[in-house]
Amino acid sequence: MRILLLLLSILLEVDCLRVLRDPVTLSFSNQRNRDFKNQFSISDSPYQWSTEWLANVPVDHFAFANNDTFKLRYFINTKSYEEGGPIFFYTGNEGALEGFALNTGFMWDIAPEFKAAVVFAEHRYYGETWPYPKSLSYNDTRYLGYLSSEQALADFALLIDHLKQNRIPGAANSPVIVFGGSYGGMLSAWMRIKYPHIVHGAIAASAPVFWFFDSGVKEDVYDEIVTRAFVTEGCNFKAIEKAWVGLDNLAQTEEGRAYLNSLFKLEKTRQLQTPGDVNIIKNCVHDVFDTMAMVNYPYESNFMAPLPGWPVAAACKSLSVVAKSDKEAAEGLHAAVNLYYNYTGKAEILCTDPDAALGENNLWPYQACTEMVMPICSSGPPNDFFWNTCPFTAAGWLEECKQLYVSFILHDAHFMVPHAALCPTLQNRASTLLRFYQENSIIHVKIIDQSIFPCSWVVSRKLEIKNVRT
Amino acid sequence: MRILLLLLSILLEVDCLRVLRDPVTLSFSNQRNRDFKNQFSISDSPYQWSTEWLANVPVDHFAFANNDTFKLRYFINTKSYEEGGPIFFYTGNEGALEGFALNTGFMWDIAPEFKAAVVFAEHRYYGETWPYPKSLSYNDTRYLGYLSSEQALADFALLIDHLKQNRIPGAANSPVIVFGGSYGGMLSAWMRIKYPHIVHGAIAASAPVFWFFDSGVKEDVYDEIVTRAFVTEGCNFKAIEKAWVGLDNLAQTEEGRAYLNSLFKLEKTRQLQTPGDVNIIKNCVHDVFDTMAMVNYPYESNFMAPLPGWPVAAACKSLSVVAKSDKEAAEGLHAAVNLYYNYTGKAEILCTDPDAALGENNLWPYQACTEMVMPICSSGPPNDFFWNTCPFTAAGWLEECKQLYVSFILHDAHFMVPHAALCPTLQNRASTLLRFYQENSIIHVKIIDQSIFPCSWVVSRKLEIKNVRT
After folding, report:
1. Percent of chain A having pLDDT more than 70?
2. From CA B4, how far away is CA B1, in angstroms rounded?
3. Which residue from A58, A295, B354, B393 could staple onto B3, CB 3.0 to 4.6 Å apart?
4. What local confidence, expressed as pLDDT, does residue B88 receive?
5. Which residues pair with B203 in a beta bridge?
């Protein structure tokens, strides 16, 4: 996602485009993250599964104009399952399924106690679940147009039916508890609402279910939380606020730009040529801050990038005092970027390149442009230590989306139709129907694995287990 | 609908096809019913409205492959509305909207007390709400394929949003109560479930929400209720059971067939030629029984046909004793048919012809074949006084649907995909979420107009009003 934004800032020189990111969901946008089996060390994981496929899934669940079908990938483990036990079902996110199966230890950990079957379902158009070949899908909404949350929920409903009727003996009457984090958590919550006869409970971790227009969520709250997380961990608000000025100053001169190109190890095709190009670096740093807050786990992790425990605190070591020079300010910011991109010490370039081809990176932006229009921007001090990109408007968003997609979606320029009225913003929903969790700064934390949790979280997990039981 | 079945019995000589009817929802399948303005005497009605249209409704709410839009018709009356009052919203059925607006007096009657706006929304592909021209739609699922309950619900959600945001001043925070009878009641119930943030309450009258596979509804219960209604009103079970034999006997000879053709005033192209053709009449009578039970209102009415008050009792006058001859038996059945088709005394043919063209009659069967697969059959005595057409199976249903649609749906023969897993059968739904009403034998009775209600029903209506209030 950040790659995409950098590309856009090159093309358009408008940095407000960074809001096209999905700051609370996963993006495996870096080339180094492409090899999931390597990244997540599946063979070493204590969590093991069979990979299976549900055939004959309708591309379109809600009309009969297109009767194509496809195969949906899912992972399953019935080792702990006993007849009548529950099905723990992960509603897959906007990414390949492996990362979620390996990082949702909560389901694995409690399955034996509940004698539960564990299933992870892949979201259509991500990972290996493609209704149409990628080459077609990336060229035309006639093929990509079936990427939507409603269709994905219907996929999951069909899969659950298949599991209960055919795949898991004795499960016909098993209760189904859905789990999900972030966008996957939104899907879990919506599964419980939209398919109450199929799903009996939902654990939605870090799921911004309310993050739509007119639902009372502040558009600048995300960076407010990011800022708080960094300041709490030792970053100096003023240091960061002033560091942007340092970058701007350096970018004014050829010598300064050469320094930044070298410091941030920008690849050749994307090095700063003009003062305005400094947005490439500013957006990169902003993106690193936003992402690092999400994965500020207390232990060494490898969810969105290899990182040490408490990475925010580590990044803040170089940002605890106001720099004495522009270069010193730039170095402080670079330290954070380098930690995120280069914890292993092997990266030759940072703020990694976008793919030459328009790869899977663009799928979440597509969803963000067509249905998941989640208002987000930075308003700058005192709310956050970034710069002002507010207000977030539907018209502005639509304009950005058009610029983003006109180049590769050929079929119809009018596909961006935010369906705000159809989004389940849930304002009037009885609170007993489902439970929400919105973490301050750490994503998926309620459902990741148990062994490495500090005590305080284990307590809340016990409460969670009790909820699953009731 | 009955017309369609008669056509089929000619073509296929299988009378089990009668189950393609929608026995609990409305069909305006007779030519005499086509002129709604005349039929329902709109100009004389105490209920008056403005006809309006919602533009730019997406043909497909759940994908971006097809970005066509259409205009949705609705009726609105805000005379009683005061700012902040509720919106009473009728979720239109499988037929032109006029009949529902004129026969849902409950909404009109209580609107002044609640200071409510009254809105009736037309279901896509019925009445005057056509996403594509009929000529295209009847030839190809690429155009007809967007006829589905899910799409219709999304239409209504958009319209409610439009009403609240733009059309009705001061209604932004107005509660919305949806009303519907029969299929419209199913839609109301599903609106409350699927769009809980938009719809605050639902009154679903005579809505067979549970009438799907595996939901515990007996497949032969409908004709059991019909039989009970007729026997209660004076019909003799044995008389009707034996009358079918009388028809069969008469149909064996040319003379007997001539007698039946004349008695039942069958039009020339559909007169009995062989003994098997007797199914034309048997299905016609069966259909009249099933329909008349639904409209067994205690007052003269004109909902599905012009009829006297208590029409079932009227029909049973000729069916109270076992006939002494085949002809007498036939005459007893004819009396019921004649009452239904010819209460006005002007009909020249009964068991009316199907349209030459495949008209709107075929839309509900299309829905019944694609998503509304509601198990229904007759098992004969002692359950009912018809003949055995059970069991109802998905495979048999699919076969019938294929025979029905292969002749005019050219695009794809595989469009019949009952989505049982996606239907909200609601087995495990909390009862507080919505309220169900399944009348024994009278349809829409809870929501029709107040002035002509006998006391016992007014009592239950008062309870209903209380529910609307809370």
Report:
1. 74
2. 5
3. B354
4. 96
5. B179, B435
A64/B145 Cβ within 8 A: yes
Q: Tell me the chain B residues in contact with residue A411 when contact means C-beta distances shorter than 8 Å.
A: 65
Give the DSSP letter of residue A430. -
Instruction: Give the nearest chain A residue to B149 (CA atoms).
Output: A62
Instruction: Copy the structure tokens of residue A420.
Output: 């705000």
CA distance B161 to chain A (A): 6
Q: Residue ranges of the domains in chain A?
A: 41-209+434-469, 218-354
CATH number for the region B218-354 comes to: 1.20.120.980
Whether residue B390 is predicted with pLDDT greater than 50 in this model: the reply is yes
Using only C-alpha atoms, what is the Rg of chain A? 22
Q: Which residues contact A11 (CB under 8 A, 6 or more apart)?
A: none
Q: Kindly tell me if the per-residue pLDDT of B4 is higher than 50.
A: no
Is the Cβ pair A419, B61 closer than 8 Å?
A: yes
Helix H or strand E encompassing B181: strand B176-181
Residue in A with minimal Cα distance to B62: A150
The 10s digit of each residue's pLDDT in A362-394 is 788 788 888 888 888 999 999 999 999 999 988
Q: Which fold has domain B41-209+434-469?
A: Rossmann fold (3.40.50)
ipTM of predicted complex: 0.75
| The overall pTM is greater than 0.80 | no
Cβ contact A146–B412 (<8 Å): no
* Distance of alpha carbon B213 from alpha carbon B425, whole angstroms: 9
Whole-number Å distance between alpha carbons of A96 and A127:
4
- Cβ contact, residue pair B426, A197, below 8 Å: yes
Q: What pLDDT does B396 receive?
A: 83
Long-range contacts of A399-408 (CB under 8 A, 24+ apart): A400/A16, A400/A17, A400/A19, A400/A20, A401/A20, A401/A365, A401/A368, A401/A369, A403/A8, A403/A12, A403/A17, A404/A4, A404/A8, A404/A17, A404/A20, A404/A362, A404/A365, A404/A369, A405/A366, A405/A369, A408/A138, A408/A139, A408/A358, A408/A362
Cβ of A146 within 8 Å of Cβ of B65? The answer is: yes
% of residues, chain B, pLDDT over 90: 44
State the alpha helices, DSSP H only, in A163-309: 183-194, 221-232, 237-251, 254-263, 278-294
Question: According to the model, what pLDDT value does residue A446 have?
Answer: 52
CB A60 within 8 A of CB A151: yes
Distance from CA of A433 to the nearest CA of B (A): 10
Residue B145 forms contact with A (CB below 8 Å): yes
Using CB atoms and an 8 Å cut-off, which of residues 174-233 of chain B contact chain A? 193-198, 200
More confident residue, A11 or B272: B272
pLDDT score at A108 = 94
| Structure confidence at residue B250 (pLDDT) | 97
Per-residue pLDDT tens digits for B32-82: 343 444 455 566 778 899 999 999 999 998 888 888 999 999 999 999 999
User: Which pLDDT value is given to residue A182?
Assistant: 84
Pick from B150, B193, B412: CB nearest A196: B193
- Contact at CB, B415 and A67, closer than 8 angstroms: yes
Dihedral, CA atoms, B118, B121, B127, B132, nearest 10 degrees? 150
